[in-house]
Design a protein that fits this description.
Helix content: over 70%
Strand content: under 5%
InterPro entries: DUF6261
Number of helices: 8
Number of strands: 0
Pfam families: DUF6261
Order of helices and strands: HHHHHHHH
Distance between the termini: 44 Å
Structural class: mainly alpha
Shape: rod-shaped
Length: 238
């Protein structure tokens, strides 16, 4: 008997199983069955919406990652310059004071600002640090130029990720969340498609048998992966 999709499946797991089921259906000649055709006509747009919602989640996750990657060289710059402020060489101390006067106008607290505010401040700080009058001082501080270059690259990468995120969420106010769509997909697959295929596999195994077995295998694979994942103990934070 065909299992039902495990309700504890992750959104991504439901999405993958759903796409496999749709792909299997498209490789059959069962489109002539009006009942099954109606079910898949409803499932296909849900699958597209679910994938789109996952893309928005992925874009947001990538944005967070790029923000963390930007914060690293930003903090390094403050720590490096702070260290040089105590250098025994007066020339290097003076150079550090010159650079510090610029970055202290922004402060390391900008890492706690919103994405938009932090981006604006980092861009402004990078412009200030690019001034010709600061280049000699920066050159005297070993590693400073490299950190500034790394910060510039990280800032560019963040802005690229932010554009991707904004594009993905442009219509977010009118779209359902991934978890909401997942519920609809489970409802359709478990209460309609699976139930229908169970019955038709008995009534007309020659026509529906192969597809029913394929769907059964897809769902069984998913459910096994879910059970395996759930059986693993949660990592304990120390």
């Amino acid at each position: 008997m065909i299992q039902k999709l495990n309700s504890k499946s992750r959104v991504t797991e439901v999405d993958a199983a759903c796409m496999r089921i749709i792909g299997a259906y498209q490789n059959t000649s069962l489109s002539t069955d009006v009942h099954l055709a109606a079910m898949f006509s409803a499932l296909e747009p849900l699958s597209v919406s679910l994938s789109g919602s996952i893309n928005r989640i992925t874009a947001e996750s990538n944005l967070e990652e790029k923000d963390e990657e930007r914060d690293e060289p930003l903090r390094s710059l403050f720590y490096l310059v702070a260290g040089f402020l105590h250098h025994p060489d007066a020339t290097i101390r003076a150079a550090a004071e010159k650079v510090n006067a610029v970055i202290e106008r922004y402060g390391m607290g900008i890492t706690k600002e919103s994405y938009a505010v932090e981006s604006s401040l980092v861009s402004s700080m990078l412009k200030d640090l690019a001034q010709p009058k600061l280049q000699d001082a920066i050159a005297l501080l070993s590693g400073c130029a490299e950190i500034i270059a790394a910060l510039q690259l990280a800032q560019t990468a963040f802005e690229t990720a932010r554009i991707a995120y904004e594009e993905e969420k442009a219509d977010d106010s009118t779209q359902q969340s991934a978890s909401e769509i997942k519920v609809e997909v489970l409802e359709l697959v478990n209460k309609k498609i699976v139930v229908y295929l169970r019955a038709m596999e008995v009534v007309d195994v020659e026509t529906f048998g192969a597809f029913a077995r394929t769907v059964a295998e897809i769902i069984a694979d998913n459910n096994q992966a879910v059970r395996k994942r759930l059986s693993k103990p949660e990592p304990v934070e120390e």
